[in-house]
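Please predict the structure of the following assembly.
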Amino acid sequence: KNEVEQSPQNLTAQEGEFITINCSYSVGISALHWLQQHPGGGIVSLFMLSSGKKKHGRLIATINIQEKHSSLHITASHPRDSAVYICAVMGKGAGSYQLTFGKGTKLSVIP
Amino acid sequence: EPEVTQTPSHQVTQMGQEVILRCVPISNHLYFYWYRQILGQKVEFLVSFYNNEISEKSEIFDDQFSVERPDGSNFTLKIRSTKLEDSAMYFCASRGEALYGYTFGSGTRLTVV
């Protein structure tokens, strides 16, 4: 069973700051998702990574498969980035590829 | 952009009642999932469904739960006799053949009283 740990659990930043959220997992995976959950509860997929780095606007996600670690970076943070960011991993091998989730990082960006 | 649609958005039910949560996955997707999130806790896998049958299920998914794809478009989760501890947000998700394209619905908040 994969254990997914995120840090920090809570993060408060000033608008404009560079933010990093970390995720580590215990067992090899086929892919890792970064998800965003707003107060209303809905989940939006930000990235899916199996290697390297991806960038979308001000968001950057990296993964190190050997170290079993991924980071999500937000550049020039904005109050609208305030949300819970969740790391979720997809297992290897044959199977339905269900996701195992971390507890999430609650980000608050203050103007 | 294609969406996964869930209804209702919020349901309140009496303990012991049956509830059916509904999902319309993205039309060309093949794999369907139900997850739940108890308030303040992490999201947990319940069940996956492929080719009209359950492919995997978690320990949470006991005999009180069932899933169905009755008409080729809807994907339902039934809880036969709800308990207080079933109160949670339930998310449906679907994906295509590739690992990309995992898409979540906006969730159904179930409150058992």
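Chain A has a mean pLDDT of 93. The first strand of chain A starts at residue 4 and ends at 7.
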